[in-house]
Amino acid sequence: MFETTYFKRTSSLVTAFTVCSLGLLSAPSFAADLNGCQSAPILEKFEKFGETGKMPRELGMWLGNPEAQAIEPYQVFDNVDYVGICWVSSWVVKTSDGAVLIDTLYGPFADQLIGKLDKVGVKPEDVKYVLITHGHFDHAGGAYQLKSLLPNARFVMTAEGFAEAKKGAEMSKVSPRAWKMIEPDMVVYNGTKITLGDNVFTAYATPGHTPGTASYEYTVNDGSKSYQAFTVGGLGMNAIRSQEQAEDYIGSVEAILAMVERDEKPLQVHLSAHGFSNNLPENAAKLKTRQEGELHPMVDKEGFEAQLLRLRGIAEDRVEIEKAKKKRL
Question: What confidence tens digit (pLDDT) does each residue in 196-227 have?
Fold first, then answer.
């Protein structure tokens, strides 16, 4: 679950993830306190970024450093492996008829995804769908490279998601970190179901982080137990530009809350798009020492619900900020 400190900081982090539209700094070294991919120091750096609007030099160096971002892939659930990097997630869900990849990473990290998939036993031709959460480069930027490397995959987004990714790629042409985006492939809508083998992936339109953000529900297995998992497409409010968009964010949070609170097959697992935001590295470490019979550290219905309630409160504050802006105009 998210640490309480994350939510205390989120109000000052509404601009922090503008890193998604910035060229990242490259450097041969990075801040020592960010070494090891630990959630707390990463959050502290993003807090400073959010408060000042200026990226701390050490954070920019760290984000652009391949060595600092490198993580070996590892199994999270019986049918799920983590193939992302330190600051951005990518998940592969195995089914009885192939695999589904969630988010593409970007740049050199997208190129490395094929090797990571191989390490967890997934061949390129096994990937049948690539579910992309939204159009920011760190989630969609690898689609162009992967399109030719995953011969049997359909690339999935909302129509608005494809549009915002295309716009982001166009704008990046004048930046040091230019990237390309594929043409729209498979467009999904709120409630679209994709069945692959023994799993069903449901897409939900969850506008807020961006207008085209999508989130995905699927089943994860832990021995004889199974749980409904969810990847929220975007938690940050950094890209909100209006009262209406903030209200959309609230509506999306409330829709997810209803799924957490439902009687039948409630959501109990949040496999997040940015692992440091809900202690993924620390929970991954717990997996290594988990004893037989212990609850999986990422099964946390109450924690997921608490996250969403706090985020809703922050978004409600953002609505008031946007209302005040209108009055001043």
Answer: 999 999 999 999 999 999 999 999 999 999 99
Alpha-carbon torsion angle 271, 217, 111, 72, nearest 10 = 30
46 CB burial (10 A radius; 0-12, 13-18, 19+): buried
For CA atoms 107, 108, 109, 114, the dihedral sign is positive
Helices (H), the chain: 4-10, 39-52, 57-63, 66-69, 107-119, 137-140, 143-149, 159-171, 243-261, 280-289, 301-328
Q: Which residues contact 147 (CB under 8 A, 6 or more apart)?
A: 153, 155, 182
Q: Tell me the two tokens of residue 87.
A: 């600051």
Give Cα separations from 325 to 281, 318, 328 (angstroms): 39, 11, 5
Distance, CA of 250 to CA of 22 (rounded, Å): 26
Q: Is 111 exposed, middle or buried (0-12, 13-18, 19+ CB in 10 A)?
A: middle
CA dihedral (256, 258, 261, 267) in degrees, to 10, reads: -30
269 has which bridge partners?
229, 299
Amino acid letter, residue 111: D
Residues 6+ apart with CB under 8 A from 124: 114, 117, 149, 150, 151
| Residue 128: its H or E element | strand 127-131
Q: Which two tokens stand for residue 36?
A: 């090891």
Cβ atoms of 3 and 279 within 8 Å: the answer is yes
Is CATH 3.60.15.10 the classification given to domain 71-328?
yes
In which residue are the tokens 């689609």 written?
A: 143
Taking a C-beta distance cutoff of 8 angstroms, is the pair 196, 98 a contact? yes
Calpha distance 40→57 (Å, rounded):
18
Residue of 101, 22, 116 lying closest to 69 (CA atoms): 116
Q: Are 218 and 201 in contact (CB under 8 A)?
A: yes
Tens-place pLDDT, residues 246-288: 999 999 999 999 999 999 999 999 999 999 888 899 999 999 9
User: Whole-model pTM?
Assistant: 0.90
